[in-house]
Amino acid sequence: MGWHGCASIPAVSVARHVVWIGAKIKGADMPTRPYVIDELISAKAIAARIEELSREIAEEFESTDKLVVVGLLRGSFVFIADLVRELDLPIEVDFLEASSYGDAMESSREVRILKDLRGAIEGRDVLVVEDIVDTGHTLNHVTKLLQSRKPARLKSIALLDKPSRREVDFRSDWVGFEIPDEFVVGYGIDFAQRNRNLPFIGKVRFT
Ligand code: IMP
Ligand code: MG
Questions:
Q1: Which of 17, 50, 168, 195 could form a disulfide with 136 if both were Cys (CB 3.0 to 4.6 A apart)?
Q2: Which sign, positive or negative, has the C-alpha torsion 117, 188, 56, 54?
Q3: Alpha carbon distance, N-terminus to C-terminus of the chain
Q4: Is the pTM of this model over 0.70?
């Protein structure tokens, strides 16, 4: 797969990955510790980057009869919505839900498919859309699974990438922004299901 580069953002201070102690506890028992959210990437910067990425994707899939854009639920729902509206191509949208995190801040490394695609992708052009590549386990697993279904072309895009956290050798074809080892929320991305509705990407800072 080709590497189409990404934009870097300035590194922010305190680069510690916070591991939530109650990581195995789900739902209501999750965060009670207060935190604030510091803006890391503005809504404007995200929109500008999506415009650039859409142009590159449209060029790559110029000859497609129809591109199946596959959003990984739930974190990519805002990104995919903005991305497809900038994409000047005939597309279809499908969703797949894979889980490796539960409600925790640390990956469990075991990827499960919670909801599969509705449509077949054999012989089709496919673009997988993810919010963040962290350890790499999720996209590595999902792209292998989809590749086994024999698509004509399979590419992936991630809005964010934390290269310093990688545990498996995986690289997304397009990356919006490389970020340091911080836990981020907003623009679809959650902390224990919260903060998905922030229009920007912010980092979680416990107070
Ligand atoms: P990976 O399998 O470790 O690459 O994890 C990818 C998934 O973990 C992403 O799709 C996110 O759902 C989640 N994730 C990773 N980093 C963060 C973060 O900083 N905030 C919220 N979710 C995250
Ligand atoms: Mg996710």
A1: 168
A2: positive
A3: 42
A4: yes
